[in-house]
Write a structure and sequence with these properties.
The protein is an alpha+beta fold. The chain has 16 helices and six strands. Helix content is 52%, strand content 9%. β3 and β4 form a beta hairpin. It starts with a strand and ends with a helix.
Length: 339
């Protein structure tokens, strides 16, 4: 399965905000956080491998603070779909339907009982420290998302009661942090997380920014994005696909073979051998990707030849020019003029 890279980017940003030197950890894997392409999608396997590397020695409870730095920016069509929905009920249904377009690994489902609205969240894993950290981040981030989206819609933020699938912390300072963020009535030890709104009558509330035509446009875009993501469901990555996807997720930054092996948690020699068995090599995959990125950057007139050469790892523009002409039979400038 693949998903938006936004979840990883928000988690990295949150780690920075709480004082974790995540950039040094990422550097060991050849990743520069500021070079990640927010429009890209990332296989679950790669994201979990990255998270496993950068979350070492971080307590799961840190996710309470990390998730508070998740933001609305970057959700694009999904966000516009929510704010142009006719009612709160429709917006919640869309949030559940298109949750794969968000940062969530866990799953959401909506339940309405008597006069209460339950937005349930089921974590993907609570048996490991990494799974617990991710769940803490996603619950904290979703709580903030709900508050932010109400404000963006131009509506009053309702009281939201929280149930958590975590044990009540014995540390009184940490308990106070949970209560300060989620409210004094936050409940621990529940089967799954839940965001509870007391008055179900708000489901019929009209959203001031609702617009039928705009809604239809973004609904179609979200359906297309969801269909694209679901194509990868159930498919296990080959080592070649892993390397390709890993190298593609950054703008212009190409991790080394050693850094990619670090991300895979296997020795570099083993990675080299596995690629040989697939009738390819890291060098061939890397060069193919550089050629693709070179064309994309050259066709984007906002970049100079010097900038493109630097982004692709060439110390001198002349070396990039020579390589480009060898690949395509034209210099970068000739190619740009002809296209």
């Amino acid at each position: 399965m693949k998903r938006s890279i936004l979840g990883l980017m928000y988690l990295i940003q949150g780690m920075r905000h709480v004082g974790i030197d995540v950039d040094a950890r990422l550097a060991n894997m050849g990743i520069q956080a500021d070079a990640l392409d927010p429009a890209s999608i990332i296989p679950d396997e790669i994201e979990w491998d990255i998270l496993q590397h950068i979350s070492q020695d971080i307590s799961p409870e840190q996710g309470l603070y990390i998730g508070q730095h998740y933001a609305l920016a970057g959700y694009g069509p999904f966000l516009m779909l929510l704010v142009t929905s006719e009612t709160i009920h429709k917006a919640l249904l869309n949030g559940v339907k298109f949750q794969q377009l968000t940062h969530l690994f866990g799953t959401l489902h909506l339940n309405i009982e008597q006069d209460r609205i339950y937005l349930h969240y089921q974590p993907v894993d609570l048996n490991t420290a990494l799974g617990q950290l991710r769940a803490q981040c996603e619950i904290s981030g979703t709580y903030k998302f709900l508050q932010d989206i109400f404000m963006m819609m131009g509506l009053d933020v309702p009281d939201i009661h929280i149930e958590l699938p975590f044990s009540c912390p014995e540390d009184l300072v940490l308990l106070a942090a949970y209560q300060d963020y989620y409210g004094q009535d936050v409940r621990f030890g529940c089967r799954e997380a839940a965001f509870i709104l007391e008055n179900s009558q708000i489901l019929n509330t009209k959203i001031p920014s609702a617009d039928v035509l705009t809604y239809r446009i973004y609904e179609e875009k979200c359906l297309q994005d969801l269909k694209h993501l679901k194509k990868s469901a159930g498919l296990k990555l080959t080592v070649v696909e892993y390397v390709q996807d890993y190298l593609e997720m950054q703008n212009g930054i190409i991790p080394s073979m050693a850094e990619t092996a670090c991300a895979l948690h296997i020795p570099e020699r083993t990675l080299r051998h596995q690629l040989q068995q697939m009738q390819t090599s890291y060098k061939e995959i890397r060069e193919k990707l550089i050629k693709q990125k070179a064309l994309k950057f050259i066709e984007n007139s906002s970049y100079s030849i010097e900038q493109v050469a630097e982004m692709l790892g060439y110390s001198e523009p002349a070396a990039f020019n020579h390589a480009f002409k060898r690949w395509f039979g034209l210099s970068p400038r000739q190619y740009y003029r002809n296209h």
